[in-house]
Amino acid sequence: MKRIAIFASGTGSNAKKIIEYFQESEDMEIALIVSNRAKAGVLTIAEEEEIPSIIIDRAYFYESEQMLFDLKQQCIDFIVLAGFLWLVPKYLINAYPKKIVNIHPALLPKFGGKGMYGMHVHQAVIDAAEKQSGISIHFVNEAFDEGGIIFQASCAVDSDDTAKDVQAKVQKLEHEHFPHIIEEVIGNTFSQL
């Protein structure tokens, strides 16, 4: 049984879809939720689903390797970033090579990088008069949104779309694709060991 930790900073809509997807799995389970916000909606989901959670602060995450110790204590095999807004420190990337994935609400390499999250991304897509947007699922490295791309899916951006319209289209793609891509990546990663 592969144990997955989900890192999230917000409401947890992607986390909820991932938890639901893996509930019946005999090979993989969501074993831990990590958040950097004490009032994040994802923590309510963790409580409802009876999944252990950790609330972290910057000192804990960046000034020590306590996070790695706690992940090892929980026997975590794989990390999923689902709306987690902090840059992952090098010690975690080194400990989990090709075992940390993120979802970004745009077609990378466009509209990625520091500060490009949520509605900021969708508004940037509108402001650039893009004809399409979508999702990028990628491995995590030491820079925001620059790890190797695993999967992308796109949606049309209509001329009268608002940032909220684009958000709704992109979120539909996230919920449709992220859980099964996670399953595929974990299956591929551990079959090669």
Question: Would you count the extended β strands for me?
Answer: 7
Q: What top-tier CATH class fits best?
A: Alpha Beta
Whole-angstrom Rg: 16 Å
Please, how many helices? Answer: 7
Question: How would you write the strand order of the largest sheet?
Answer: 3-2-1-4-5-6-7
Please give the domain count.
1
Rounded mean pLDDT is 96
Structural class: alpha/beta
Would you kindly provide a written description of the structure presented here, covering whatever features stand out?
- The chain is an alpha/beta fold and 193 residues long.
- The chain has one domain (2-191): 3-Layer(aba) Sandwich (Rossmann fold), CATH 3.40.50.
- Helices cover 39% and strands 22% of the residues.
- It has 7 helices and 7 strands; from the N terminus they run βαβαβααβαβαββα.
- The chain has helices spanning 13-22, 41-48, 58-62, 66-73, 90-95, 118-127, 163-191; strands spanning 2-7, 28-35, 53-55, 78-81, 100-104, 132-139, 149-156.
- Strands 3-2-1-4-5-6-7 form a 7-stranded mixed β-sheet, with helices on one face.
- β2 (28-35), α2 and β3 (53-55) form a beta-alpha-beta unit.
- α6 packs across α7.
- The longest helix is centred in the last third of the chain and has 29 residues, at 163-191.
- The radius of gyration is 16 Å and the shape is globular.
